[in-house]
Amino acid sequence: MKGVVFTEFLEFVTARHGEDMVDDIIEASALPSGGAYTAVGTYHHAEMATLCKALAAATGENESDLVREFGTHLSGTFSNGYPAFFSRSTNFFDFLESIEGHIHVEVRKLYPDAELPSFKVAARTATRLVMDYRSPRRMGDLAEGLILGSAPKFGASARVQKIALEDTDGEATRFVIDID
């Protein structure tokens, strides 16, 4: 997982709970990296899961809700850091459909070693998009947050229903996304 996700997570934690909480969750996590991240580095995704579990334990928050909120935060980071990915699309559903065929293609050019999830559109109407997410990292809550956080950038208000696909223990998730 790219380091920018880790550095943004630590900024997210700092903004919500302060720098002491960052130190506390890093100490509680016994991370192989020691919790020292750079935006351009690459780190094992298990470290993110460990940090999220530690934060949930320290705050009493629901871990899925916390990861979803972080995804919403991260969408802002991505829209500020990569505005061309967002400005290329005229509406929210076009943007979501561009993830696999455009955004991930460009990310792979920048980071050839990036291990990206896949997003495949299964159905689309004017007000509903059905998209399947697959990733061995099982970060469906993060993906949901990214979706929810991206909608307002297109003047949309989204509601997302998350459905586990098959017996994949979170590796495959269907998102049913409705907009007004």
Give the overall shape, derived from the CA principal axes.
Answer: globular
Helix coverage percent: 40-55%
CATH fold title of the largest domain: H-NOX domain
Beta-strand segment tally: 4
What top-tier CATH class of the largest domain fits best?
Answer: Alpha Beta
Order of helices and strands: HHHHHHEEHEE
Low-confidence residue ranges = none
Secondary structural class: alpha+beta
The number of helical runs is: 7
- Strand line-up across the major sheet: 1-2-4-3
**By CATH's scheme, which homologous superfamily of the largest domain applies?**
H-NOX domain
CATH architectural group of the largest domain: Alpha-Beta Complex
Q: What distance separates the N and C termini?
A: 34 Å
The domain tally reads 2
Any idea what the radius of gyration is?
16 Å
Per DSSP, what share of the residues sits in E-state strands of 2 or more residues? 15-25%
